[in-house]
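Much of what follows relies on a compact textual record of a protein's fold. A record is reproduced here so that you can trace the correspondence yourselves:
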Amino acid sequence: MALKIAKGGNGVRGGAVVVGLLVIVAGAVGALVHHRVWWAGAVLAAVMLFLVTGPGTRHWFDTPRL
């Protein structure tokens, strides 16, 4: 996903949302089962999800690329 973000597109944005949600769930499960440090990954994924779904990024992803 990180390599394709530069080209934009709603598919990349949707993929980033899915990856963010999966990392949040995996971090939460890991924190409950193993150790609290796993919450750090869930928090960072939540920040990424917040940034990817914002109104400013929607405009950026919809911009046509050459």
Helices lie at 10-33, 39-52, 55-62.
